[in-house]
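Per-record layout

source: Planotetraspora thailandica
name: histidine kinase
length: 487
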Amino acid sequence: MHRRLLAVLVPLAVLLVAALGVPLSVTVAEREMQETYVDRLGDVGRFASLADTALSAGRTEALHQELARYHELYGIPVAVIDTSGKVLLGPAGAYQEAARNEPALPRIVTAALAGARSEPSGEWAPWDDSALVVAEPVGRDSEVVGAVVTISDLSKTRHRILVRWARLAGLGLLPLIALVAVAWPVSAWVLRPVRELDAASSRISQGDLTIRADAEAGPVELRRLAESFNTMMDAVENAVQRQRAFVSDASHQLRNPLTSLRLAVESLEPHLRAGGDGRQAYDVAVDELKAMQRMLNSLQASARMESIRTASPVDLDVVMATRVDRWRALTATAGQTLAVDVPPGLRLLEPPGGLGSILDELISNALRLSDAQVVEVTARLVPGGAGAGHSDAAVAGDAAGDVVAITVRDDGQGIDASERTQALRRFWRSPRHQNVSGTGLGLAICADLVGAAGGELRLEEGLPRPDGSGHGFAAVVALPAVPREAS
């Protein structure tokens, strides 16, 4: 997270440094060029004064030698030309060779012969290779008899500009480095409580209500937020614990009176007349007492299973190996057929309370409630979680976001599409199953446990019925796949 914060701060700092550094760099380059121009202008001004005197007196030998010496010392060709452009004094060869590469030379010379002084060059960029041409008229106004022209190579000047720019860039990097050096630990310190809150929220979403955030680190505002978060989680955990304790205690406390009541009712059986109205009332009372005992057992089981809130990786092969033989025995006893199609090597996140218990409940529903002939158990790894309810999804390699879809289908009665959502509610039972033993808690508990592991329990159409009157019942358990290397 602090990397993203730096990704915002550093570009802003770079823009700020650039906003200050670019104009300064331009100013430095222009000043270097201006200094070079002023230096050359001073030289041609002096040579123009000497040339005016020498040409007037006809003594040009000394000036010619001085111009040659200047070229020899500085490598800058300087020449005195007449109004036709012919070189009168100076190194003519070097001047003409340099002049051939300067397209701006005729314009500058024409202006000098007209009595105008050269303007400073605007080409200061280090990557530009043009020379600096400076011309000074010899004579005054209408008495201009020639001009002194220098053609200066600016490679050294541009090298100095690059050196100055490099120094400025180095100075500009210092605050950026200091910003990163300071912002990295500071942002880590500021955002560490946020990361811990994020991790705690993730753990809580998986059902771990015991996790708490560190309220001793970070800025004051985040410490207060962590304290409020911990207070909220204390209240939530206490409420959940009280709820579970109430369900468990109530079920336990009602068990003994209910058992006593059942014994008392059953003790009345010898005193009933055969075929009398009392026998029917007695049978109803015993059935209701048995249903209440099953309800209490289911409530206690629900409280125990929901108290286990940790999901962990498990190999589906291991779970199936401990369950398939028992399922085959149960289906064989009921005169049904069990078909299992589970590819090897699937690894998934097991819900709290165990995946085997959930599959046992789904198989039990198929045996007790559907009146099915065939029960089919399939599993597929679905890339990206798309289409998890389809048994023909291709098996692919482990990847982030994949899910393992375990489907239990039968060709029995099934339930209507309008009843599928209600079937996942607690204590709901289909009107067709009112006379079948059960509590209406099984699917609801399974859905809660699967959801606690980040998965989903869905109800869909099952296998086609043998008589062609519709489809049976299907329950799809979609759980996050766990890559081998991650586990």
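summary: The radius of gyration is 47 Å. Confidence is low (pLDDT under 50) at residues 387-399.
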